[in-house]
């Protein structure tokens, strides 16, 4: 018999060389809503984009990729 289970969503943020794993605050929210939820805590997310999902370790991983420009 096959069992279908919904995979947990995990959001990954890379900040100062460290990967920070963020839990899903509300599974019904869109990925954009989750980004907006975490933006006050992690201001670097205000310029971030969300990567395509990847399935790893029985979870769907989304990466918040920051788009930081260099001054010059």
Automatic annotation (TrEMBL):
Annotated protein name in UniProt: PRTRC system protein C
Lineage of source species: Bacteria, Pseudomonadati, Bacteroidota, Flavobacteriia, Flavobacteriales
InterPro entries: Prok_Ub (IPR032866), PRTRC_protein-C (IPR022289)
A Pfam family annotated for this UniProt entry: Prok_Ub
């Amino acid at each position: 018999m096959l069992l279908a289970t919904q995979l947990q969503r995990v959001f990954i943020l890379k900040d100062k060389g460290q990967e920070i794993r963020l839990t899903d605050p509300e599974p019904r929210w869109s990925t954009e809503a989750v980004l907006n939820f975490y933006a006050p805590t992690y201001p670097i997310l205000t310029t971030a984009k969300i990567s395509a999902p990847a399935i790893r370790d029985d979870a769907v991983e989304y990466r918040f990729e920051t788009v930081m420009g260099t001054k010059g």
